[in-house]
Amino acid sequence: MLFVQQNIWDELIRQDRELLVQLNALGSDKWDAFWLLVTNQFNWIPLFLFLFFLLFKAYGWKKGIVLVLIAALLVTFSDQLVNLIKNSVMRLRPNNDLELKTIIRALKHPHGFSFVSGHSTTSFAVTVFMVSLLRKHYKYIVFLFLWPMLFAYSRIYCGVHFPIDIFMGMLLGITIGLLFYRFSQIILRKVNS
């Protein structure tokens, strides 16, 4: 039974590596600057400020400040959980993998480990949290999901994450976002009383 499970795992990793090579090969020099812009989290600060503005507009100052603090706690929790997972699994990034680094287009060269993607986890966590909070107030807030999809894909384009890193980060981020949304509802009820 263990041998069969190992074979399945090995096949999944092989396919993950092949998918990375195929997706990464879609890149071209003319798009590199765009994807490097997308992958830099500091370039998204205006989006975060806009989301905070929407929170304050929808919930007022008192609740808005509470929600911003919960969002900061979410980002910190997500970041630390990702670091714990990365340091436990210790999967090499594609750009550091000796077999892959010569055949992929690596636009960035971070060190550290790959599984799970912090960009994917945290961006999906923040998005699920914000959309859950704002969907009753703003009809088109669901379009915010374009951000984590672009942000996460940029990591494959840049050659620093495997597709499984991104996908599992997405699932983890959705879970974290929903948990923190539930937590925020408990806190908001206490703020109201």
Characterization of this structure:
With 193 residues, the protein is an all-alpha fold. Helices cover 72% and strands 0% of the residues. It has helices spanning 2-24, 29-39, 45-89, 118-134, 146-157, 163-192. It is elongated and about 60 Å long. The termini are far apart.
Can you tell me the CATH architecture?
A: Orthogonal Bundle
**SSE pattern, N- to C-terminal:** HHHHHH
CATH class descriptor name:
Mainly Alpha
Mean of residue pLDDT? 91
The overall strand count is: 0
What's the Cα radius of gyration? 19 Å
Summarize the main sheet.
none
Indicate the multimeric state.
single chain
Judged by helices, strands and strand pairing, the structural class is mainly alpha
Q: Domains counted in the coordinates: how many?
A: 1
Question: What is the molecular shape?
Answer: elongated
Query: Ranges with pLDDT <50 over ≥5 residues?
Result: none
Number of helices: 6
Residues in helices, as a percent range: over 70%
CATH topology: Vanadium-containing Chloroperoxidase, domain 2
Strand content: under 5%
**Straight-line N-to-C gap:** 56 Å
